[in-house]
């Protein structure tokens, strides 16, 4: 990603906060399999400040859309409290395989991280499962449109667990299109169809208005969304 490319992805900016439209396929942090990641490019967003903005939360590598950055220590502390208290309005768009029996509902299923240790014959791995012994996880959802075979759903997570929406859509019986971990095909032809559509933040100071930002769907989701009734707005 070039400086111009990251600048073109700014959805909102003020003295405290930047909201980026994160591209699908780019992890936010460095990792064993992630030599290229978003934090390498944040210097382009200093705008005269001594340090680059920092991540207030995270999105999975293959999830696109609204990502909140804090520009200084005070902003990071306030954002951290908001996210910890579930006071951030977040909505995701996804396209799933199949159609739920109802037009809206809530998945209230605790989720647990299950780790398979590394051995001399195989690499270790982990995945998330619905399990009563896990952490509380709640997702509200509603159908926005459908072809019958595919359904466009808006998900509003009330908790912020790793892979929450993906696991809850599987629990609903409608896995996310293109999900290699929790979907029907371990090698799907389509990329992951999960997008952070909206984020809303309370004012970080009394003199400022609330923040509400939307990110346009990524190119790889537009055909499926259009088939399900999205009009491009």
UniProtKB/TrEMBL annotation:
CDD domains: PseudoU_synth_RluA_like (cd02869)
Domain of life the protein comes from: Bacteria
Signal peptide coordinates: none
InterPro entries: PsdUridine_synth_cat_dom_sf, PsdUridine_synth_RluA-like_CS, PsdUridine_synth_RsuA/RluA, RluA_PseudoU_synthase
GO annotation terms (biological process): enzyme-directed rRNA pseudouridine synthesis
Cross-referenced SUPFAM superfamilies: Pseudouridine synthase (SSF55120)
Molecular function, one GO term: pseudouridine synthase activity
Domain Pseudouridine synthase RsuA/RluA-like span(s) in chain numbering: 16-170
Keywords (A to Z) from UniProt: Isomerase
Protein name: RNA pseudouridine synthase
Species per Swiss-Prot/TrEMBL record: Magnetospirillum aberrantis SpK
């Amino acid at each position: 990603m070039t400086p111009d490319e990251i600048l073109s992805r700014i959805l909102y900016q003020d003295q405290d906060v930047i909201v980026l439209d994160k591209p699908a396929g780019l992890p936010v942090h460095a990792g064993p399999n992630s030599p290229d990641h978003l934090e390498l490019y944040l210097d382009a967003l200093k705008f005269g400040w001594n340090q680059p903005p920092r991540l207030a939360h995270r999105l999975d590598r293959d999830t696109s859309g609204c990502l909140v950055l804090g520009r200084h220590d005070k902003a990071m502390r306030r954002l951290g409290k908001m996210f910890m208290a579930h006071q951030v309005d977040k909505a995701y768009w996804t396209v799933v395989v199949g159609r739920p029996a109802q037009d809206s509902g809530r998945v209230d299923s605790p989720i647990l991280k299950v780790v398979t240790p590394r051995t001399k014959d195989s690499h270790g791995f982990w995945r998330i499962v619905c399990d009563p012994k896990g952490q509380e996880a709640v997702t509200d959802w509603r159908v926005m449109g459908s072809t019958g075979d595919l359904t466009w759903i808006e998900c509003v997570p009330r908790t912020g667990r790793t892979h929450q929406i993906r696991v809850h859509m599987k629990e609903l019986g409608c896995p996310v299109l293109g999900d290699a971990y929790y979907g029907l095909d371990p090698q799907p032809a389509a990329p992951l169809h999960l997008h952070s559509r909206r984020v809303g933040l309370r004012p970080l100071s009394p003199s400022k208005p609330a923040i509400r930002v939307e990110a346009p769907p990524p190119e790889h989701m537009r055909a499926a969304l259009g088939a399900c009734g999205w009009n491009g707005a």
